[in-house]
Amino acid sequence: MIQKPYSKMKVRVYDLGLFTHLAAALAEYFGVVEYFTPWVSPFSTPELQMIGSGIPGLTRIDSFEEDDDSVDLWVFFDVGNGDMQERLRRSGKLVFGCGDGEILEGKRGLFKKVLAGRGLPTGKYQMVTGVESLVKVLKSEQDKWIKVDNNARGVLESFHHKNWINSMSTVDKWAHDLGFLREEQVFMIEDPIHPKDGVEPGCDRFFTNGNYLANCMYGFEAKGEGYSCISLDFNDLPKPVLLVENAMRPVYAKYDIRGMMSSELRIGPDKKPHFIDACQRAGRPPSGISSARYTNFGPMVLGVAKGEAVVPEYDKKKPYASEIIIHSSVTKNEQTTLPLEVKEKDLKRVKMGNICQAKQKDGTMQFFAILSNCGFMAEAIGFGSTLEESQQQAIESAQKIDCIGKDFNANVFDDLDEKLELADKYGVGLKSGKKG
Prior knowledge:
The chain has 3 domains: 10-97, Rossmann fold, CATH 3.40.50.20; 124-190, Dna Ligase, domain 1 (2-Layer Sandwich); 201-425, D-amino Acid Aminotransferase, Chain A, domain 1 (2-Layer Sandwich). 26% of the residues lie in helices and 30% in strands. The chain has helices spanning 20-26, 82-90, 103-106, 108-117, 131-140, 164-178, 239-254, 287-293, 297-306, 387-398, 412-425, and strands at 6-14, 30-36, 58-60, 73-76, 95-96, 125-129, 144-148, 159-161, 186-190, 201-208, 211-212, 215-222, 226-233, 259-266, 274-279, 320-328, 336-343, 350-352, 355-361, 364-371, 376-384, 401-403, 406-407. The strands form 4 sheets. Strands 10, 11, 12, 13, 14, 15, 16, 18, 21 and 23 form a 10-stranded antiparallel beta sheet that branches. Helix 5 runs antiparallel to helix 6.
């Protein structure tokens, strides 16, 4: 039996269900990993109380603060509980997470002001309050992006408004979903940034004690379908991306962020970097890659919580990684509990959130995925010495998942490679930095 490096330590993970795979990755290093997701409501349903139960290495708990003196490390891979993290830290607890830094993701207007204060471009935007004010703008304007703070993310994600005829029914639905809050909701209306010739690189990294860890993942996403990246030394990021990261460093230090972060930029022919999204949490994608890539993932999480500059370790002969997003047509219009099967030997390359009740039979692991209407079910991962090798391995990994209504875009990397070619022209492609 392999001895766990921190066999005497207990970790408690607070999650909203998306990052069950990250919690499970910690179980390879720590003696006890407890996993909690909120489940109580006036009319609770049993499936939410099951997330994480029956998963090898995880102990599902139903009370987050019970017996808290026995916990050595508190872990938050998601946002939404910054105040809880700060309270734990004030009481002397060791905490991995963004803390109050979550406001940079949750409050879009504030984020724009922070960017301006750091001398970074913000693009043209306006804030309006209420659906009625929003409609007035959208009736007279075309080609805009509509965004809201995290308080209403379940109502709408970023939405591209082309013209009022096309947007009318969508806005009607927002008004219906917001109910009596429709005239209190704040909307951000943004002009598009390089709408025809822009690319959106992203950087996923760990931050602690005022600085980034020495290595990060830099990549591009085909929204909701796939992702490709390269691992490299932080200082070898393409210059426009590094400019933004260095400009934001004092801001992250101010909030004493000690966790995972995922950024998204928009860059065009002028090579001016527009920071459009500052996720103060693990990204999805590519958190599945993170949990499989780093061979010292557990020590990284522990070290970051302590404020230590742990050096990320991974196979440098295979710096490229890709993943395909697996959906199920069954879950696109309803919440359901869906069985899925993966060969036990393939679990390193298939990462799932919102799962429970793992059962083993003849070398196959069966899980139940508790999914809402997003349809996002799993990440199929590949690694390689070349980009093409990692993409091919991701496709092979996607084929190894068995479930009802399984759906993925097998041609996603053809579309993504077109973006990568454009990014190369702007000096921000995957081969624009040095491999770590």
